[in-house]
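REQUEST FORM: STRUCTURE PREDICTION
Request ID: SP-0412
Submitted by: Lab K.M.
Chain count: 1
Length (residues): 472
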Amino acid sequence: MNTTIKLVLIGLMAVLTISCQEEELRVRYDESHPVFKKALVAESQITYGDSISLEVEVADDKTPLSTLQIKVVVNDVLLASEEIRTKGNSSAYTSKYSIPFAARMPDNAEVEVHLKSINVEGYTTDTILHNTIAKRVPIPDLWMTFPAAVGIKLTLVDPAKHIYQASNLTLSNNITFRLATKVRSGNRIDWSGMAFGMPNGEFGLIDDINDPQIVLYDPTIYGFNKITVDLLNFTVSGEGRKLEPATALNIAGFAAEKLTSIDNLNVAHQRDWKTLETYMGKDVEITFTGFGNLATSLTPDFFEVTGTDKAKFLGETGVYKLYFLPEANYLYIEQPNARFPNALWLDGVGAGRPVAPFVKTTSWNWNTPEEYIFCRKIAEGVFQATFYANHIEAATIEEPWRERFSMKFFHRRGWEGEEDARTYTISTPNLFAPTESDKGNFVGTPDFEGKGGVYRFTINTNNKTISFVKLN
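STATUS: Completed
RESULT:
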């Protein structure tokens, strides 16, 4: 037997022996249970935001005490818990516990205080105190207050469920506000009342020092025409007329924007772009104006050209960011905030637009759509990207890897959720050799050199297969 194993076994036997000896030498007590001599909450009624005062005395004449456990619960919501070390045969403890105004706190709710006393032999006694009633502060009025606009009063439409609403509004689809029970002149918050915002990213009470605002944004609507606040469950939501998918895109309606791309040789290029965020509908035919030859200006993954100035959108219905590069007469499309499993991104070196004149633009960066590729979801877990690819194995530059083909799929626009090439079966293994470094990139082999052209990369994340097909 290995010497190390022998030593470990000897050590374990020694520990067990000592533990058994300590157990045998420990004083043992007859079965007994702690008794609560006093257990009360002074307050019979409170308002949410107040505190309760707990007083406890517990004793066990036969067996020393060990632990006192305390839990404060309202409407099955645990508001506070505490564990106190108790010694000897009796112990007394007093404390205050805040009962906050929070989600799911109904009016006239019982405040339950659960007590458990445990002695050193493990015997317990439990009791529950429920002599305190918690009441809500009446909120007849609720206001939306804006940083630089007139406030809006909400109406209490369902008193039993504490639902407030404001209708027939003409707000934008991106609004920032707070909620207040009292306002002063100019609809500013009167902090002597309650106010609500988004502390720690969740709907809740705020004050004049910690007052993060509520943000509602829905890019699929024209604007919010109805706001609903649920002060029982602490939620706020908005509704509005849904956008109609775009049926016409005119380059004159795009905004001018200067963007800088870093190419595969690490050279920066600042260019004049045209950008637009718009709502696109699957299988909707769009009329294009000012885009030149649609066959060479639209990505084949997202558009099927149906006429000299028309194309059908192939992507899923939703809001997209469009980037038109006049210098290349090419339209890029993406959903910048999309995440897997609804989207997949491809980044690396060795790829570019799938139209002539062919040039490599990707560069392991995320500044502009020239540097990465937004894949189209063609089925659940299946994505495709069409691009020009070129692999130069023996480049005579300082960093030869910049001229090779090396790509990776990501779960978002950025360095997150990498798909490991080593876990995939590739239909053209002679062209690829997954790397062991960098969690497995899809890297070109010497066989790929001289085979530059337009390829369609299809990844199936369900069965872990990759298809790489040359189109021309």
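NOTES: The chain has three domains: 35-135, 142-239, 248-470.
Reviewed by: T.R.
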